[in-house]
From TrEMBL:
It holds the Pfam family SET. CDD domains: SET_SMYD. One of its GO terms (cellular component) is nucleus. It is found in: Cytoplasm; Nucleus. Its main location: cytoplasm. The chain crosses the membrane at residues 349-368. This is Acyl-protein thioesterase 1. Gene3D superfamilies: alpha/beta hydrolase, SET domain. It comes from Saitoella complicata (strain BCRC 22490 / CBS 7301 / JCM 7358 / NBRC 10748 / NRRL Y-17804).
Length: 604
């Protein structure tokens, strides 16, 4: 019988970084040859085996022969749903997954509850039809109201089985996660990777999930009350509404299918899906219809192997589905399951907008990040110089929908490179505001945006000038900290690049420099009169990828030419990167560092 093998050691040539289209992903730190093992997730945080396969799929290594029952079963009491391909798997499961017997007890309680469910009274929760109607226009406020109603409704007594639709596989997944959390809280030193914190770091997708499948919200409400009724009382401490919602919000879009497969093969072709599991670290491999990485399950472990040669700085992506499908069918399925509106790289901004709007991640960054200065009213990530007192500063503005934390990796990158150690970094956070391009929904932005194709039309000059005042306030704050204006650089990426160019041009004191990556010059015609003469000779760094699908390359180049020809800005260093999209790669960061060394060199 197959047994779990020790996963091979992966390459250490990748790291997680913010992506330019939203969220985070893995990127190559150096060139990686094809067929290189780059990542191993030894074990999932939680999982659920489909009921029809529970006697055919090993609960430890997931080995399965469809149509044939396994011979080994967990022997601790009347444990439901755990079968094994051999004695070794059974011993390892009992020693690592069910040390105190709670997992087996909880699953047995679930099975008994499923059988009794039809004989019980319905719970007093919001009516399913009412929820279904409301969810056609569901927003975060409405979703919070529904869950508050569920929390305020009388909960069934323990053992009183509520009626209503319960997703049994989802109930198993939640129970598995809560047992792990309980075991950790009972014995904090015993928690193994992945941890509850790793799990919570995943992207929550609750709002998109219920918008696309509104009928699931009543099911989740019933499932919560069902679990409160049937699970062992020892789990009551972790079976809170908060933990339940945290778990269900991270299942959609982050789960991997457990497929019937020969050992070491990728699976998920014509094979049976046996269940699904959540590997937090593997979830940062994003989708691409032309993937450069393939996922290969090795027993219980999920491994990632390069499918072709990967360049330094390139994102590592896998396929979330069947590439042999018709393109439109693949897009439809990916939209339903993973909330993608378009998966081609040219349209990744749409994915960017959707994910960021439904996520509270940015809001948490804005208000609760420990690096935020308590002394300042301006929300920003502030990173001090690494070699003592700073003698220069860079204020770097993020792009649409991002956050200051999303670009703070620049400071970390230069710290690893032992360069620019005399510079203090400030990464401000844009406020939440309605974005016309995104249907009026609120997201972090420096100004409203109506089009990606006609950036010069219907500019939000009011929003731009308000944000310029914010950046100028950060310049003033930096000057008051002891760094003069002529040692301060204003920079940014995408929408932040536009703000850097505008803010720098109209600032009333001479700055050390202005830097714009993958952006354009806003309010161009008005700058003829608005620009300040003190910054007429200020050095400017501008860089753009020739394959940028978001802010077109020609917009960036035309902005550079306008600055030179119409505004007389001669000290412009222009860099273009063939084939680069809407991102910043290592070569661009190196060019930026060399430019910074010139405009704000270290002081003795």
């Amino acid at each position: 019988m197959p047994s779990p093998e020790t996963p091979p050691t992966p390459s250490n040539s990748i790291e997680i970084r913010p992506t330019t289209y939203g969220g985070r992903g893995y990127f190559a730190l150096s060139p990686i040859p094809a067929n290189t093992l780059i990542h191993v997730s030894p074990s999932p945080y939680t999982l659920s085996i489909i009921r029809d396969f529970k006697k055919e799929c090993c609960a430890r290594c997931f080995h399965c022969v469809v149509g044939r029952n396994l011979k080994w079963r967990a022997e601790r009491g009347n444990v439901a749903g755990f079968w094994f391909c051999g004695e070794r798997c059974k011993r390892e499961w009992e020693g690592e997954e069910d040390v105190a017997g709670l997992l087996g007890e909880a699953m047995e309680c679930l099975e008994r509850g499923f059988k009794r469910q039809k004989r019980a009274e319905p719970p007093r929760t919001p009516d399913g039809k009412e929820v279904g109607r409301a969810s056609t226009t569901m927003d975060e406020e409405m979703l919070e109201r529904v869950w508050k109603d569920a929390a305020d409704a009388p909960w069934p007594k323990h053992g009183q089985i509520p009626d209503g639709e319960v997703d049994q596989e989802e109930a198993r997944l939640i129970t598995y996660a809560l047992v792990r959390l309980h075991n950790f809280l009972s014995s904090p030193g015993s928690e193994s990777s992945p941890t509850w914190s790793d799990f919570l770091a995943l992207q929550p997708n609750a709002l998109s999930h219920f918008r696309s499948q509104p009928y699931l919200l009543p099911s989740h409400l019933h499932t919560f009350h069902f679990l409160r009724s049937v699970l062992p009382k020892s789990l009551r401490g972790v079976l809170t509404l908060e933990n339940f919602r945290a778990t269900t919000a991270r299942d959609p879009g982050n789960s991997f299918g457990i497929w019937e497969q020969a050992e070491g093969e990728e699976g998920d072709g014509e094979s049976e899906m046996l269940g699904w599991a959540m590997y937090p670290s593997a979830s940062y491999f994003n989708h691409d219809c032309d993937p450069n990485t393939k996922k290969v399950r090795r027993g219980r472990a999920m491994t990632m192997v390069t499918a072709r040669d990967v360049a330094e700085g390139e994102e590592l992506c896998i396929s979330y589905g069947h590439l042999e499908e018709d393109v439109l069918e693949r897009r439809r399925r990916l939209e339903d399951k993973f909330f993608f509106s378009q998966l081609d790289k040219t349209y990744r901004l749409l994915l960017y907008l959707i994910v960021l709007v439904v996520s509270l991640y940015s809001v948490y960054i804005y208000h609760f990040n420990p690096k935020m200065s308590a002394a300042s009213s301006i929300s920003a990530i502030r990173i001090p110089a690494t070699n003592g007192a700073a003698t220069a500063a860079v204020i770097f503005a993020h792009g649409l929908g991002d956050s200051g934390a999303g670009w703070s990796f620049i400071a970390d990158h230069y710290k690893r490179e032992k360069s620019l150690q005399h510079i203090k970094w400030i990464f401000p956070n844009a406020p939440l505001r309605p974005i016309t391009l995104n249907g009026g929904m609120r997201m972090p932005a420096w100004y409203d945006l109506t089009s990606l194709e006609r950036v010069e039309e219907a500019e939000d000059s009011v929003g731009m000038l308000q944000s310029a005042e914010t950046i100028h306030a950060l310049v003033k704050e930096t000057i008051e900290s002891g760094i003069p204006a002529d040692r301060i650089v204003i920079g940014g990426f995408s929408q932040g690049s536009a703000m850097a160019l505008l803010s720098g041009m109209i600032h009333k004191e001479k700055l050390a420099g202005i830097a714009g990556m993958s952006g354009y010059l806003p309010m161009a015609s008005k700058l003829v009169d608005m620009r300040h003469p003190h910054n007429q000779e200020t050095p400017i760094f501008m860089a753009h990828g020739t394959a940028d699908p978001v802010v077109k390359f020609q917009f960036g180049k035309m902005s550079m030419e306008y600055l030179k020809e119409k505004l007389g800005m001669e000290k412009i260093e222009w860099r273009e990167y063939p084939g680069m999209g809407h991102t910043a790669d290592l070569k661009e960061l190196a060019d930026f560092a060399r430019w910074l060394e010139k405009v704000v060199p270290p002081k003795n």
